[in-house]
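Entry 12.
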Amino acid sequence: MGARYPTPPVASKWAAVFYAAYFGVLGVVLPFLGPYLAARSVGAIGIGLATAAFSAPKLVYAPLLGTLVDRGRWFHGLLAAHLALSLGAALLLARLQVQWTFVPALFLVGLGFGTVLPLIEASVLERLPQGGYGRLRLWGSAGFVLAASASGWVLAGERLLAFPGLLAVVLAAVAVACWPFDRGAARPQPSAGHARLPGALWALLGLLTLHQVSHGPYYAFFSLRVADAGYAREVIGGLWSLGVLAELAAFRWGAQLERRLGLERLLGVALALTPIRWLLLALPPSLPLLAAAQLGHAASFAAAHLAGVQLVQRVTPAGASRATQALYSGLAFGLGIVVGSALAGPLWATLGGSGTYLAAAAFSAAIALAWPAIARRLRNTS
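Predicted 3D structure (tokens):
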């Protein structure tokens, strides 16, 4: 029997609150970490290393902890302890003076923060009815939008140096949202032996990771693509917001999509539409094309994640759900985005914007073509 974490009533009551708070942290970090570090005189290399350090714990530590929890190594207050570490490291940012010290500090922020999502998400997925995930996950998108909008006002102008304090406040909100999960967790029973992950699951994880690699030019250079076309910052912000709104809509009506298509077909459609999104960005930029590409975020991110995370959960052996969800998070949204962003730089310098997005479209088309074979393996495993 796997670790009973948390109890069902807690999961159903607090999951939406948790998602809103958790992704609210990213609404503060993604838009404002780079500018804050630059304001603290951290150079470009240091900013890149510090940003990578924030995501690095997802790759090794989170899967390791997930494995330990699946094997019964759980104690009350585990989530609170990790978030306390994150909060303390966030406050420490304001006192640092030497450039290289920002890297280990942000590693510690990510170490605590990145741990809680796969632990809670695995428990939520174990108990949700079919089609219920999207309606909960949309609160994460809403939390991101709200936090990013509020942060833009709070950190305007010289108030940018208040970034560590604001980050600590939002991390404290995550700790509050996690408290019922910690409090409601029963002492886990160790699983019977080590659950070996089937090859089809590894193939699925690999495909979802490569899918995120194709997003590298988008995350790294979409704003530059729009700015180079002569559009103002307000237009850039509006286009990013349009993408999040499309994501919200996909999560909101995800249950209907699941019932109509099933998870396998839904992921297949998302993978097939992704190359079209990158092709739109490869064309000479115009506002209608850019808006259409941003509406494609509903497919390339939201629908792909909606189907992918549930397929991962479906094929995961009993007693390994937390470790596997941590692997999914670390591989797809850690390694995949880091590798994709790193490769996007040389491609952009060599091929320019249009060539880079054409390369992304070809790469994602190959991923879509590989999906039917992996889907057959998954059906044979289920």
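Annotation: Residues 63 and 323 are 5 Å apart (CA to CA). The chain has two domains: 8-184, 199-381.
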